[in-house]
């Protein structure tokens, strides 16, 4: 008995096993592509009718049927069936049930191979736009916070040891740059997503007089994929997208790590809004930074999807292979994770409260202005390597006496170098140190304000 649920049933002498049916079905997750699937089908049908492959009447019937199906989906009334394997066959079957022969003619000159590749590209290019927009909103939230803190001094770190003073705004603006590059990467990868595989059919093209340029135009693709084998088989665009998403999540993971540290009692540089923290079921005093921690964790999940997709592609012979059905869940989850993370972070950042006194105290603790003293001596003619040694000696002396460099009296400092004069005290202040780094990219308030203005204009 042939299994009449299956499009290819006549070829088979027995129905597909239940286990195989469940194992191969993708409808549970690919129904998410329903709207773009219909969009692609309508463009295909319109092109076929324009090329004389379908009658105008067939196209009208298909349009009407698809409109009904769209309503069903929107109202959650379409019954998806795993007997019909995937979203493409579910929709086609439903269409044929509604409009008869016209529905059965829709698949002329097309295969699910070019159909699914088209669907994913349509879907993903829209998600790229959403993500780019959300990145900009997040950058604006960072900018907003930064604009209040160009004079708020904190320790800048290398090796997580106090290095040199920077402003809190300068630190935040580093992230604005990082996320700016992320947005660029999504925009760039969209150029390669936004190409039309439709008309490549199963792998070699089709015998009907189709116009691939026309469907590409109808669907708003920038151009057509030039080779039919490549069009149905490569998912490099999905890998590229997930790689951009992984970098974005790695940036979030770094920021999350800093928020976790900064909100801890040891640093106490910031307070996170209560709505972003949770308590402990056993320790009443706890306020845990769950959201940044979870984001840090979720970055692993997205990097995992990148590994999954790139391994999925590896060693696949041309052209389409069923392996590619496995591209969807990692891709969907990557998009969901990135979008949720961007939304939650934008709100969380706007609720960050800087504790300026603590940042300042921390900057005073680690001899953060030692380089300024070295630079001071260099300006008086001492070679940098020698002044580095002189200042190291002064730092060791101050450490032994448990004080800061600026606490040492002038005659003590002069024992390290007679060139040191009264004006050294202005150099050793945190504010003096910041202000002295007054060039493009430096931490001087004047420069950081310029960077903030640059981004405010760019993000408009
Ligand atoms: N559900 C399939 C996928 O996601 C559609 C393409 C199926 N093509 C095939 N020749 N079996 O890749």
Describe the structure using short key phrases.
Fumarase C, Chain A, domain 2; 20 helices; Ribonucleotide Reductase Protein R1, domain 1; Fumarase C, Chain B, domain 1; two-stranded antiparallel ribbon; mainly alpha; binds arginine; 460 residues
Describe the structure.
This protein has 460 residues and is mainly alpha-helical. It has three domains: 91 residues, Orthogonal Bundle (Fumarase C, Chain B, domain 1); 249 residues, Up-down Bundle (Fumarase C, Chain A, domain 2), CATH 1.20.200; 93 residues, Orthogonal Bundle (Ribonucleotide Reductase Protein R1, domain 1). Helices cover 62% and strands 5% of the residues. The protein has 20 helices and six strands. The strands form three sheets. A two-stranded antiparallel ribbon has the order 1-2. The protein binds arginine. The site of arginine has 10 residues, from helix 7.
Kindly provide the name of the CATH class of the largest domain.
Mainly Alpha
| Residue runs with pLDDT of under 50 for 5 or more positions | none
Supply the number of structural domains: 3
Question: Given the helix and strand composition, which structural class is it?
Answer: mainly alpha
Q: What's this entry about, in short?
A:
The chain is mostly helical. It contains 20 helices and six strands. The chain has three domains: 18-108, Orthogonal Bundle (Fumarase C, Chain B, domain 1); 113-361, Fumarase/aspartase (Central domain) (Fumarase C, Chain A, domain 2, Up-down Bundle); 366-458, Ribonucleotide Reductase Protein R1, domain 1.
């Amino acid at each position: 008995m042939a299994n009449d649920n299956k499009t290819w049933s006549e070829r088979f002498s027995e129905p597909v096993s239940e286990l195989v049916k469940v194992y191969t079905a993708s409808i549970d997750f690919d129904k998410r592509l329903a709207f773009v699937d219909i969009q692609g089908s309508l463009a295909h049908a319109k092109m076929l009718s324009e090329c004389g492959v379908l009658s105008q009447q067939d196209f009208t019937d298909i349009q009407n049927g698809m409109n009904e199906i769209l309503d069903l989906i929107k109202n959650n009334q379409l019954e998806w069936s795993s007997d019909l394997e995937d979203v493409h066959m579910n929709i086609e079957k439903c269409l044929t049930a509604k409009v008869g022969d016209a529905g059965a003619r829709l698949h002329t000159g097309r295969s699910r191979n070019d159909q699914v590749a088209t669907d994913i590209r349509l879907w993903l290019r829209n998600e790229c736009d959403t993500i780019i927009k959300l990145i900009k909103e997040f950058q604006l939230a960072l900018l907003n916070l930064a604009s209040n803190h160009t004079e708020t001094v904190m320790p800048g770190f290398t090796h997580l040891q106090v290095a040199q003073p920077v402003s809190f705004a300068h630190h935040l603006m580093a992230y604005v740059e990082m996320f700016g590059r992320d947005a660029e990467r999504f925009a760039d990868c969209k150029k390669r997503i936004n190409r039309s595989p439709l008309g490549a059919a199963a792998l070699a093209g089709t015998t009907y007089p189709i116009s691939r340029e026309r469907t590409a135009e109808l669907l708003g693709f920038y151009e057509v994929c030039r080779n039919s084998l490549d069009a149905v088989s490569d998912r490099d665009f999905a890998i590229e997208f997930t790689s951009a998403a992984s970098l974005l999540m790695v940036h979030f993971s770094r920021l999350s790590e800093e928020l976790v540290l900064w909100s801890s009692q040891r640093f106490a540089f910031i307070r996170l809004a209560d709505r972003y923290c949770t308590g402990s079921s056993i320790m009443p005093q706890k306020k845990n930074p769950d959201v940044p921690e979870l984001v840090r964790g979720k970055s692993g999940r997205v990097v995992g999807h990148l590994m999954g997709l790139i391994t999925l592609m590896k060693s696949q012979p041309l052209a389409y292979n069923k392996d590619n059905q496995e591209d969807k869940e990692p891709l969907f989850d990557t998009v969901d994770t990135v979008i949720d993370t961007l939304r939650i972070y934008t709100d969380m950042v706007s609720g960050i409260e800087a504790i300026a006194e603590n940042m300042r105290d921390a900057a005073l603790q680690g001899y953060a202005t030692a380089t300024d003293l070295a630079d001071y001596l260099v300006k008086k003619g001492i070679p940098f390597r020698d002044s580095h040694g002189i200042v190291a000696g002064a730092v060791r002396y101050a450490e032994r006496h448990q004080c800061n460099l600026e606490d040492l009296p002038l005659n003590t400092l002069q024992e390290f170098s007679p060139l040191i004069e009264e004006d050294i005290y202005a150099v050793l202040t945190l504010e003096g140190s910041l202000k002295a780094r007054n060039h493009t990219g430096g931490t001087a308030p004047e420069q950081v304000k310029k960077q903030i203005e640059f981004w405010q204009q760019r993000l408009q």
